[in-house]
Write a structure and sequence with these properties.
The protein is 43% helix and 13% strand. The chain contains 13 helices and seven strands. The C terminus is likely disordered.
C-alpha cells in the first residue's frame, strides 16, 4: 500500500490516494526526481526469501554476499524465474531486474596485509552479530571493542571468512569470478566499515581499479546479453531448490539440518552456528 501511495508522486504533478492503510489528499509533491520517470527501485533483502518477492514486484534485489557458487546460482535463478514468470507490479513504475550483493572489501598486495587492514570490517560484523545474539544491552553496560579484542584471540576470531572480498588482487579476482559465473549483476564493495582508515580505503580501491576491475568491465556486455536473453524468454533457467541455501535475517538457518545454510553465517562472527560446521 505504501508503494501504491508514494511512487506515483515521482511522476504525477498532483496526486491523491486512498488505500487500505494510507490516505493521501490531493497535493502537488515537489521536488521531483532528476531521473525520469524515477530512480531504479530496490528492495533490501536481509532474508533471502525476499529476493523472490523483489522479483515478483519487478524491483532490484539488494542482498548480502552468497557463501558459495551453488548458493549464488540458485538464488539468481530464483530471482529471474520469478521476474519472468510471476511479475506483478504494485503500480505503474519501471521495473528494475537486477540482483546486487554487498560484500566486505579490502584489497592489498597480499592476503595477510588485506586482512590486517580490514580490521574495521571484522569489528563491524562482530558487533552486529553480538548485538543480534545477546542484545539489546542497557546503555553504558557493553564495550563492544573490548569484547571484539577478546574474541580475536579465540580460534573463531583467528579464522578468516572465505566469502568476503578481502585479499590480494588474485584472491579477489577469483571470488568475483564465482559471482560472475552465477550471473550476479552487481557487487557493492563495503570498504568504509569500522575503524578502517581513509588511506587504506583509498589505496584499496585504487589497487582494485587498476588490477582487477578492467577485465570484469570488459566482459560486462556478456552479462547484459545473457540477461536480455533471459528476460526475452530465449534462455530458460533451471529451477533450483533454494531451501538448502536459506537463512534468516539474523544469520540463523531456516533449516537446522542444512550444512550449507549454517555455513552462510560469516566466519568472523564467532557465533556457535558458524563454529559448529567445518
Amino acid at each position: 500500500d505504501a508503494v501504491r501511495c508514494t511512487l506515483p508522486m515521482f511522476w504525477n504533478h498532483g496526486w491523491e490516494y486512498e488505500g487500505e492503510f494510507f490516505k493521501f489528499p490531493l497535493r502537488a509533491v515537489v521536488p521531483k526526481p532528476l531521473q525520469k520517470p524515477h530512480p531504479p527501485l530496490w528492495v533490501a533483502c536481509s532474508q533471502l526469501d525476499t529476493i523472490k518477492y523483489a522479483a515478483h514486484r519487478g524491483m532490484g534485489s539488494l542482498c548480502f554476499k552468497f557463501v558459495s557458487l551453488d548458493a549464488a546460482r540458485a538464488w539468481v535463478n530464483a530471482y529471474y524465474n520469478n521476474y519472468v514468470h510471476n511479475l506483478e507490479k504494485l503500480a505503474d513504475y519501471q521495473t528494475n531486474p537486477n540482483i546486487a550483493v554487498v560484500s566486505g572489501f579490502m584489497c592489498a598486495e597480499t592476503d595477510d596485509e588485506a586482512w590486517a587492514k580490514a580490521d574495521g570490517w571484522t569489528f563491524f560484523q562482530f558487533a552486529l552479530q553480538l548485538y543480534n545474539k545477546e542484545g539489546p544491552f542497557e546503555p553504558g553496560t557493553m564495550n563492544f571493542w573490548d569484547r571484539y579484542q577478546e574474541w580475536k584471540q579465540t580460534p573463531a576470531g583467528q579464522k578468516r571468512s572465505g566469502s568476503e572480498l578481502i585479499g590480494s588482487p588474485d584472491t579477489i579476482r577469483e571470488r568475483l569470478m564465482e559471482l560472475e559465473r552465477s550471473n550476479v549483476d552487481q557487487v557493492i564493495l563495503l570498504n568504509q566499515a569500522g575503524k578502517n582508515t581513509h588511506e587504506d580505503i583509498c589505496s584499496s580501491l585504487e589497487l582494485f581499479a587498476r588490477e582487477v576491475m578492467p577485465e570484469f568491465h570488459a566482459r560486462h556486455g556478456e552479462q547484459e546479453a545473457w540477461k536480455a536473453a533471459v528476460l526475452a524468454g530465449e534462455i530458460e533457467l533451471e529451477d533450483i531448490d533454494t531451501d538448502p541455501f536459506n537463512f534468516a535475517a539474523r544469520g540463523k538457518p531456516t533449516l537446522k539440518s542444512s550444512k550449507e545454510a549454517r555455513n552462510m553465517i560469516s566466519g568472523v562472527t564467532g557465533r556457535p552456528e558458524a563454529q559448529s560446521v567445518a
